[in-house]
Amino acid sequence: MPNREADLARPRERKGGDVQPVTKGVMREVKIPNADRDWHPIARRLWDSLKTSGQADFYQNSDWAFAYSLCEDLSVYKKSGKRSGQMLQTIYSAFERLLVAEGDRRRVRIELHEPEPEEQSAAVLAIDDYKRALGVVKD
After folding, report:
1. Single pTM value for the model
2. How many Cβ atoms sit within 10 Å of the Cβ of residue 82?
3. Cα–Cα distance measured from residue 53 to residue 60, given in angstroms and rounded to the nearest whole number
4. Does pLDDT of 10 surpass 70?
5. In sequence order, what are the residues at sequence separation of 6 or more whose Cβ sits closer than 8 angstroms to the Cβ of residue 109?
6. How far is CA 14 from CA 8, 11, 98, 106, in A?
């Protein structure tokens, strides 16, 4: 598993010098489908966690459709009387494509960080200082 960017002494560079350009597209509006009420509790918990996890910032409708299909498959597997370790491994491997686990995200250099605390802008602080100097607002 690659190190986090902050753990490196210097930025990562591609060997050979040339950095490949990135083709960019426009993110579309996303509608997250509702989970099936009949899913196994583990599949439902996984679905709910996908909706609140940071990697969902990168999901488009096709990603949600793929995740829905995988959760459906996981639910059928968990509810079936006959289980196969190979089938479970296949389902879990498919979740790697959605970057569900931190190790999967690190491999493609996506790192989720704690949000920075919101600070008041300098303009708001200056206005507050001015009001205090005028005696309009007390500390």
Report:
1. 0.66
2. 6
3. 14
4. no
5. 2, 5, 12
6. 14, 10, 24, 16
- How far, in Å, CA of 24 to CA of 44, rounded? 33
Label residue 128 exposed, middle or buried (CB < 10 Å: 0-12, 13-18, 19+).
middle
Count CA atoms closer than 13 A to 130's CA, side-chain side: 6
Helix, strand, coil distribution of the chain in percent, nearest 5: 50, 0, 50
Q: Which helix (H) or strand (E) holds 56?
A: none
- At position 74, the amino acid (one-letter code) is L
Report how far apart, in Å, the C-alpha atoms of 18 and of each of 2, 8, 10, 22, 123 are: 21, 21, 17, 12, 43
Query: What pLDDT score was predicted for residue 19?
Result: 57
* Residue that wins the pLDDT comparison between 44 and 28: 44
Q: How far apart are CA 110 and CA 103, in angstroms?
A: 10
Residue 102 CA, chain-centre distance (Å), reads 9
Is 132 in contact with 138 (CB distance < 8 Å)?
yes
The closest of 83, 81, 82, 106 to 96, measured between CA atoms, is 106
**Number of residues that this document lists for the chain:** 139
